[in-house]
Fold these 2 entries.
Entry 1:
Amino acid sequence: MKVLNVVGGGKMPIVGLGTWQATNEDELTSALNHALEIGYRHIDTAYVYENEKVIGAVLKKWISSGKLKREDLFITTKLPVAGVHEDRVEMFMKMSLENLQLDYVDLYLIHFPVGTNYIEGHTITPQDKMVLEKSDHVAIWKKMEEQVDAGRTKAIGISNFNKQQVERILKCARTKPASLQVELHVLLQQKGLVEFCQKNGIVVVAYSPLGSPGFNVFMEKNGFPTKETPNILQLPVIKKIAEKHKKTTGQILLRFWIEQNVAVIPKSTNLERLKQNMDVLSFSLDSDDMKQLKAMDMGEKGRIFDMDFLKDVKSHPEYPFGK
Ligand code: A2P
């Protein structure tokens, strides 16, 4: 598996397993076991996904049975919005480690640049009690750096930050951000942000590289308004390129980012699709394919995750998108 070097010494396999919305314990356990069997070593989770404990239990079995060494894995988790406050970083970091039954993670990310209040016992602050809070990124980053010093994470990074916000972290950092995880797919390519990060040694990770086919399932399940999202997997340009290479449309969408040294973390609990998503390193896209795919970029209009399910989020000074 091709790896990307992450500041702090870690090697991130370029294909990882996303786990957002994988909350059914049996389904996730079986998917993870299968994923590990077929060679996945990079697993992406977050405190708010409410599945760290399930992941931790599976990893523990694999490690304690000697089938897998901890150092062969690359595990990412994230500080939730309720933790985007300098006084709560350490507490949430420790809770994630406890859930995962690990001594350290490989990468700890600030999940989103806007912070909310935290109510004990809640992973996500309930909407009717949610209050946006001032988010002092410089103070929070100092606390993130302390997590590296304490050995709780090998590397630290950010997610959903815009270029100005990344620049501010770079300026104040004693420990540089190792990675930026953002929404990236053919309709939202964020070329300037990706190039800026790569020039500064920040590994870029694409979330929703398939266009998040499960987005509205999440919205409905949580009582949020649904919205129309494009079915990227079925777009004619993608289908044509897939036919040409005798690959699935999903594989083309993933390979597009691998060609650009961007890691992908597609989520799947389906055994066949897990296999497909790993099998994207044995073929390449040619310059004509890349040209057609790059031309599909819609800029901000292509964004699916504007996060407006967080109450009043767009009024927060650190709201990152469309700026
Ligand atoms: P499933 O778990 O049933 O495979 P994203 O990472 O862009 O958010 O996409 C995740 C969604 O896409 C999940 O709903 C997942 O469903 C589905 N999915 C994952 N891999 C593929 C694939 N290769 N082709 C089609 N759909 C996929």
Entry 2:
Amino acid sequence: MKTRAAVAWKAGAPLTIETIDIEGPKAGEVLVEVKATGVCHTDYYTLSGADPEGIFPAILGHEGAGIVREVGAGVTSLKPGDHVIPLYTPECRQCKTCLSQRSNLCTAIRATQGKGLMPDGTSRFHCDADPVFHYMGCSTFANFTVLPEIALAKVREDAPFDKICYIGCGVTTGIGAVINTAKVWPGANVAVFGLGGIGLNVLQGARMVGADKIIGIDLNPERVAMAKKFGMTHFINPDEVGRDKVVQAIVDLTGGGADFSFECIGNTQVMRQALECCHRGWGESIIIGVAGAGQEISTRPFQLVTGRVWKGTAFGGARGRTDVPKIVDWYMEGKINIDDLITHTMPLDKINDAFDLMHEGKSIRSVVVY
Ligand code: NAD
Ligand code: AHE
Ligand code: ZN
């Protein structure tokens, strides 16, 4: 069959809307009609050419929601009509990592996923007989896409696609980083670097678990009003206090350092600040931001010797098939706010506007509605 899709032909070039061929689902696979997709900073990161795994041509997008239209042989947990959220971190429940219960980084299909291919080593997308690569196993910038069964979370049918698509990455990453990865405790002091689509969800996660001071750090002063709404108690603009004084400002505000910090930008200099603003003896810094090819982090080992901890998180440590349906419930029960973070919606043919709005600092999340 055919599908409309926004194709990334090469690094740095705008996406173009094409009608391309999509094969039906093979064994263990599912055809999904994507109803809505968010545009995450990571989509831009890969499009920019900074992603060592970036391959072109590809159909980007990994923050979607939609409806199952067809299932391949052997699929037992999903049927046509089910509402689903694609998972770039699948949950096979059988690999060593899934069985360990120590990490969400399921290994069942990671190797082929990183090469832009389905688990059998081929692509379901073609344009003029040439393969077009999948992205993060999701490719939600296509109206129809194919995913392995283990990479789909089944969700309730009364939840609006144009809001819950954001649970496919940003919401779960931010809130999950607080709850699953850091395990922030009530009364903790928290510092959040970068108040975009991820950082604002870290704020609301920190407020949910009862953090005390929740300090937001961003270069964009226009983020303050939204950040306060999502739980920020104090704001630091590095351009106002001086970029080399941010760490001291946080240490002063918290009486010794943050119990937890989160880097939600992808800037390795800021990652260092996020570690060094943590409390001596126990402060933990969680890296969420994704840095470009070849970039490295550094600090004095003394920072770790004296008890600070550096960690990272992917998809907020969430086990997608288990946790994502629960987060959809939280949204439907009014426990978390998604609506205010979706600042822009657009049809697929305006998808490049979403990247422009991101760069201009005007959007939190743009959502493409098919
Ligand atoms: P975004 O563009 O919406 O937000 C980034 C924010 O950082 C903006 O508010 C911007 O003003 C601010 N900023 C930029 N440079 C800054 C600096 N030097 N100091 C302070 N603030 C600065 O991006 P997003 O969608 O929130 O994504 C944030 C990062 O998280 C990206 O690197 C993205 O790739 C990554 N990410 C990681 C995961 C994961 O699972 N680990 C999941 C989703 C996104
Ligand atoms: N491909 C990059 C790494 C990109 C990356 O870290 N991705 C995050 C999700 S970002 C979502 O917006 C992730 O989950 N990583 C774990 C994984 O297995 O990919 C690179 O550096 O090669
Ligand atoms: Zn993302």
